[in-house]
C-alpha cells in the first residue's frame, strides 16, 4: 500500500490550506495534518456554516486530490453508499447467452455475471479503489440510521470493503476521510473511536475578518471590520441560530451588491435578514442593538 | 501498525518521565468520566510522535484530536491538560520581562520575602491600571500573563518551609477585586458604541473569564507544588449536561439555557427515528389475503394497518419557589420545545397558589422573553410566599379541573418541600386516579429526600417520583414519556 503525503507539518497544512482560500486556525491545521499523517478519518463537528464541508474541499484542492462525496440522509443504505449489482445488465447477459444458443453451464454464467463489469460502485467503494490521491467526504453522517454506521466501521478502520461474491477489496491508497456532523444525534462510540475529532466553532474576530476579506476582496477594510464586530455582537445575544461564517460572507456580498459603504444602524437593520433567519431573532437583535429608536 | 511501534519507542524513553506523565494524564481523564480506550491511548502516542513538541498548543491539539470525542467534555479536558502540562513553571520565563518594572529577582525558592515586598499599595494600583487596560482591549495573552502575575504577587501564602507555601486565588481576588473595574470597563465599551445592557453583559463576561483564569493559575501553582493528582479532584466541575440544577452558578444557567434547543432537537430526531422504526402496525388480514390472490394464494407480501401515533396531553405543574425555580424553567422550556410531540401542553406554576402560564409559550417565541415573562408571572403564583404543595394541588383540582381529563397526563416538578403544611394527599390521589399517567420530577439528590420538610416518599407513594438533577437525566426522562 502506498501512503500519500498529505501535509508535512501543521505549519505546512496552514500554508497550503490558506493558499486555497481556507484560513485554518492552529488546532484545525494540526488536526488536519494528523489525519493525513496517521491515516485516520477525521470527524468534524460544529454548528452549521462554520466550514466543515469546506475543510474537506480545501484539503482536496490543497493536495490536488479528487473529492469523492457521500451525502448522508435518512434511509441511506448499502446500495447507495457502498456498491450495487447492476442486475438489469446481468439479466441481459443471461438472456444474451441463452439467445446465442451455446448452453453455458450454471457455474460459468454465475462466475460471469458477478464480475467487475456488473458492479456499480458507490462513493465508499469508489474512494477505496481509486489509485490517485482521494479525499472522501462523508457529509452529515448524523443524518443516517444507526445501521449505516456499522457499514462505515469496516471502511473507516481497515479501508476495505467485503463483497461476498468478489471477496475483500482493500484500499490501494488510503483516502483522506472527512466525516462531518451537526450533532443532531450522538454517533456511536465505535465510529468515534476510529476517528480523530475536531470541533469547529465560530472564529475569533481577527480570523473572521481575514476570512471575509479573502472571500469578498472588494469589501473595504473598514466595512469588513464593522461587519465582523456586528456579527460578534449578534453572537453574544441569545439567539436561536447565531450567524455563522457563511452568513458573514453572504452579508459582505450583500453589502457589495447594495453598494453600502458604511455599516451604520440603518444599514444593519435593512440587511439583517441575510444573517438572522428567525423572526424572533430578528426582533431581539433590533431591540438589543437599538437599531430603531 | 504504526501505533504499536511508536508506543514501544516512547516506552524506551520512560526514564524521562514523559510516559509516566502521559499515563497519569490519561488516568485522570478516565477518572473525570472521559471514556479513553487503549486504542485512543495509542493514537495519542502516535499523534504526539508525529508533531513537534515546540508548541504547547500543538501538543494540546494533538491530544484533543485523539482523546476527546465530545465537545461537552472539552472543558474537562482543558482543565486537566492545564494541570498536567502547565503553561509555564513558577512565574515563567517571561516574568522577568513583564515584571521588570517593579520586580528584581523572582525565583520560586525566594518566594516568601519577595512577594511581601512587591505586594504594596503602589504595586496594587499599578497592577489594577494594567488590568483595566488589558480588559478593555480584551487582550487574551496579556490577561493570561496578568492572571499569573496576580496570583504570584497578591495570592501567595508563604509557608513555614519549602513545599509548605501555597497560593490562594481567593486572597488575590479579594486584594485586587477586579469586580470594581466593571464600571470603568462599561464606560469604555459604551464609548465604543455598544448599548447599555450589551456593555454590562460583555464587561461581566470578561471579568468572569479573568476570575476563572486567576483560579486556574492558582491551581496550576498548587499542582506544581503538590502534584497534579492532588488538585485534579477539586479542580473539576462536572460538564454542563451533568451539572446539578440546584448547584448551578448564574453563568452555568445561561450555558444550560443554550443547551435546551440542541437537546430538544436531538430528542426530536431520536424520537422521529424510533417512531419510524415501529411504524408498522398490526397485520391487515383483509389486504394481505386480497394481495395474495395475485400470487396464487401465497401471501408473499404482508400488509399492515398504519399505526396510530399516540400523543399525550400534558399538564405540567411546577414549583417556582426560590431554589427549584431554575429546574422548573428548564423543564418547561424543554417540554415546550418538544410540543409537536404532544397533543396539547398546559403549564401551571405555583408557590402557594396556582397560576396558568401556557400563554407565555407562543410558537417561535424568544427564549429570553419567555424566561422574563415567567419570572414576572411568579408573583401571581404566590399569595403569602411560602411554598404550599397541599394548597396548590387543591387549587388545581378546584379551578382547573377541565385540564385534567382521562386522556391527559400530569407532570409535577418540585422538591416536595411543603413547609410542614397539609399535603392534600387525598386530593392528589383522586386527581391521579382520573388521568392517564402521572410523574413527579424531583431535582434533589435521592439521599436528601425526606430530610427536613421534604415529603418526597409520601408524595412518591401516590405519584411515581423520579430523580432529575441534570440535563442528561431530564433528556432521558422526557424521551421516555414521549
TrEMBL record, chain A:
Highest taxon in the source lineage: Bacteria
Domain AAA+ ATPase per the UniProt entry, residue ranges: 38-206
Coiled-coil residues: none
Pfam families reported in the protein's UniProt record: AAA_5
Protein name per UniProt: MoxR family ATPase
Amino acid at each position: 500500500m502506498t501512503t500519500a503525503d498529505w501535509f508535512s507539518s501543521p505549519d505546512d497544512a496552514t500554508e497550503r490550506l490558506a493558499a486555497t482560500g481556507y484560513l485554518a486556525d492552529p488546532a484545525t491545521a494540526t488536526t488536519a495534518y494528523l489525519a493525513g499523517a496517521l491515516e485516520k478519518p477525521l470527524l468534524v463537528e460544529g454548528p452549521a456554516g462554520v466550514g466543515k464541508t469546506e475543510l474537506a474541499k480545501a484539503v482536496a484542492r490543497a493536495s490536488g486530490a479528487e473529492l469523492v462525496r457521500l451525502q448522508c440522509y435518512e434511509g441511506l443504505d448499502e446500495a447507495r453508499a457502498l456498491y450495487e449489482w447492476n442486475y438489469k445488465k446481468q439479466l441481459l447477459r443471461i438472456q444474451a447467452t441463452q439467445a446465442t444458443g451455446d448452453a453455458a453451464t450454471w457455474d460459468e454464467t454465475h462466475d460471469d455475471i458477478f464480475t467487475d463489469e456488473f458492479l456499480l460502485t458507490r462513493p465508499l467503494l469508489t474512494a477505496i479503489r481509486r489509485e490517485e490521491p482521494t479525499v472522501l467526504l462523508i457529509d452529515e453522517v448524523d443524518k443516517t440510521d444507526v445501521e449505516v454506521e456499522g457499514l462505515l466501521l469496516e471502511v473507516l478502520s481497515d479501508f476495505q470493503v467485503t463483497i461476498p461474491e468478489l471477496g475483500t477489496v482493500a484500499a490501494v491508497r488510503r483516502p483522506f476521510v472527512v466525516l462531518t456532523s451537526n450533532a443532531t444525534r450522538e454517533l456511536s462510540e465505535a465510529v468515534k473511536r476510529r476517528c480523530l475529532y475536531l470541533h469547529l466553532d465560530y472564529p475569533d474576530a481577527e480570523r473572521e475578518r481575514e476570512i471575509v476579506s479573502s472571500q469578498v476582496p472588494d469589501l473595504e477594510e473598514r466595512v469588513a471590520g464593522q461587519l465582523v464586530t456586528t456579527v460578534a455582537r449578534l453572537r453574544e445575544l441569545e439567539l436561536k441560530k447565531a450567524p455563522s461564517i457563511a452568513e458573514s460572507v453572504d452579508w459582505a456580498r450583500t453589502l457589495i451588491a447594495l453598494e453600502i459603504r458604511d455599516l451604520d444602524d440603518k444599514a444593519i437593520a435593512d440587511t439583517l435578514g441575510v444573517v438572522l433567519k428567525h423572526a424572533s431573532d430578528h426582533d431581539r437583535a433590533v431591540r438589543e442593538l437599538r437599531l430603531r429608536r | 501498525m504504526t501505533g504499536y511501534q511508536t508506543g514501544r519507542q516512547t516506552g524506551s524513553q520512560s526514564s524521562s518521565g514523559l510516559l509516566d506523565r502521559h499515563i497519569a494524564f490519561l488516568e485522570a481523564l478516565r477518572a473525570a468520566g472521559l471514556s479513553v480506550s487503549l486504542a485512543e491511548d495509542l493514537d495519542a502516542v502516535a499523534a504526539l510522535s508525529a508533531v513537534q513538541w515546540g508548541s504547547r498548543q500543538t501538543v494540546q491539539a494533538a491530544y484533543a484530536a485523539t482523546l476527546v470525542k465530545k465537545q461537552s467534555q472539552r472543558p474537562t479536558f482543558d482543565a486537566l491538560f492545564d494541570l498536567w502540562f502547565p503553561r509555564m513553571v513558577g512565574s515563567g520565563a517571561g516574568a522577568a520581562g513583564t515584571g521588570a518594572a517593579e520586580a528584581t529577582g523572582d525565583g520560586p525558592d525566594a518566594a516568601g520575602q519577595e512577594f511581601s515586598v512587591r505586594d504594596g499599595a503602589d504595586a496594587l494600583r499599578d497592577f489594577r491600571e494594567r488590568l483595566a487596560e488589558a480588559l478593555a482591549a480584551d487582550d487574551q495573552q496579556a490577561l493570561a500573563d496578568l492572571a499569573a502575575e496576580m496570583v504570584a504577587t497578591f495570592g501567595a501564602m508563604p509557608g513555614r518551609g519549602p513545599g509548605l507555601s501555597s497560593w490562594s486565588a481567593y486572597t488575590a481576588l479579594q486584594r485586587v477585586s477586579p469586580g470594581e473595574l466593571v464600571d470603568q470597563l462599561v464606560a469604555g465599551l459604551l464609548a465604543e458604541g455598544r448599548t447599555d445592557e450589551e456593555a454590562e453583559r460583555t464587561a461581566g463576561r470578561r471579568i468572569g473569564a479573568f476570575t476563572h483564569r486567576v483560579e486556574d493559575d492558582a491551581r496550576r501553582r498548587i499542582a506544581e507544588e503538590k502534584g497534579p493528582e492532588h488538585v485534579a479532584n477539586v479542580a473539576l466541575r462536572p460538564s454542563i449536561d451533568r451539572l446539578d440544577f440546584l448547584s448551578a452558578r448564574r453563568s452555568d444557567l445561561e450555558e444550560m439555557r443554550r443547551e435546551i434547543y440542541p437537546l430538544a432537537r436531538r430528542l426530536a430526531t431520536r424520537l422521529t427515528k424510533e417512531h419510524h422504526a415501529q411504524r408498522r402496525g398490526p397485520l391487515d388480514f383483509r389486504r394481505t389475503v386480497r394481495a395474495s390472490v395475485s400470487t396464487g394464494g401465497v401471501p408473499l407480501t404482508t400488509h399492515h394497518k398504519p399505526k396510530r401515533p399516540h400523543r399525550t396531553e400534558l399538564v405540567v405543574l411546577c414549583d417556582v419557589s426560590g431554589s427549584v425555580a431554575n429546574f422548573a424553567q428548564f423543564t418547561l422550556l424543554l417540554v415546550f420545545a418538544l410540543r409537536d410531540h404532544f397533543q396539547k401542553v398546559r403549564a401551571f406554576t405555583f408557590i402557594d397558589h396556582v397560576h396558568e402560564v401556557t400563554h407565555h409559550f407562543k410558537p417561535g417565541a424568544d427564549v429570553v422573553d419567555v424566561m422574563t415573562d415567567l419570572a414576572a408571572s411568579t408573583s401571581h403564583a404566590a399569595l403569602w410566599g411560602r411554598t404550599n404543595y397541599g394548597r396548590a394541588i387543591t387549587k388545581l383540582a378546584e379551578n382547573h379541573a377541565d385540564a385534567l381529563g382521562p386522556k391527559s397526563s400530569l407532570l409535577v416538578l418540585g422538591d416536595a418541600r411543603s413547609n410542614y403544611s397539609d399535603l392534600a394527599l387525598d386530593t392528589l390521589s383522586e386527581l391521579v386516579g382520573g388521568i392517564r399517567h402521572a410523574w413527579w420530577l424531583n431535582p434533589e439528590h435521592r439521599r436528601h429526600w425526606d430530610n427536613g420538610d421534604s415529603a418526597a416518599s409520601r408524595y412518591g407513594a401516590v405519584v411515581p417520583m423520579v430523580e432529575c438533577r441534570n440535563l442528561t437525566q431530564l433528556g432521558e426522562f422526557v424521551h421516555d414519556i414521549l
